[in-house]
Specification:
single chain, mainly alpha, 3-stranded antiparallel beta sheet, two-stranded parallel ribbon, transcription regulation, ArsR-like_HTH, transcription, HTH_MetalResp_TranReg
């Protein structure tokens, strides 16, 4: 199977498979590592290898992960896994027409937000251990403006394009051998309407 650049999940079964808390954690860890075995992932998420293997198979059944290409594998004694796409997305309008879809969307979104909040808490806790350059480069901002739904959609599309452009530049530089000083960076954005705090 050739790795897709972008995949939009549109079926409830795949969203439910992806939305399981341990599977989200495994998928996220695998995305960071790029390739890993069940044993390696089990060690990182502190779970039994048999349980991790089961959940990896479930992710693979829905085409969310796949066996890594030969060049990325170790000694061949274990299965090596990799995400099946660079970017995985899902949109609320694909799931809100049925109670099952709406519930799966809510559960998945809630779990993703909890995991992102945990990562943010870990950054805040461990920030002093990072270099001054990384502390200065990190950001925590919020903005408030009055938009229409169309204006907000245009803004988020523009921001996504900017982020993708920077991702592609960083990836090209890394592939060209510029690996010095690179770290995993999570850029997490929320944009939503509200009426009162």
């Amino acid at each position: 199977m050739s790795r897709q650049e972008r995949r939009r999940v549109t079926d409830v079964g795949t969203l439910k498979a992806f939305g399981h808390p341990l599977r989200l954690k495994l998928y996220g860890t695998l995305k960071i590592r790029r390739t890993a075995t069940a044993s390696q992932l089990a060690e990182e998420v502190d779970e039994a290898v048999s349980l991790v293997s089961y959940h990896l198979r479930k992710l693979a059944e829905h085409g969310l992960i796949e066996e890594a290409p030969e060049a990325q594998r170790g000694d061949g004694r274990e299965r090596w896994w990799t995400p099946a796409q660079e970017t995985l997305t899902f949109a609320s309008n694909d799931f809100e027409d049925t109670p099952e879809g709406a519930a799966a969307l809510t559960a998945t979104t809630r779990t993703l937000n909890e995991q992102h909040a945990n990562l943010l808490r870990a950054w805040i806790e461990h920030r002093p251990a990072w270099s001054p350059e990384w502390r200065a480069a990190a950001d925590g901002s919020d903005f408030l403006a009055r938009y229409t739904a169309d204006e907000l959609k245009a803004l988020t599309q523009e921001l996504h394009a900017v982020v993708r452009s920077h991702e592609q530049r960083a990836k090209a530089a890394e592939e060209a051998g510029d690996t010095e000083g690179r770290e995993n960076v999570l850029l997490y954005m929320n944009a939503f309407p509200f009426r009162s705090l």
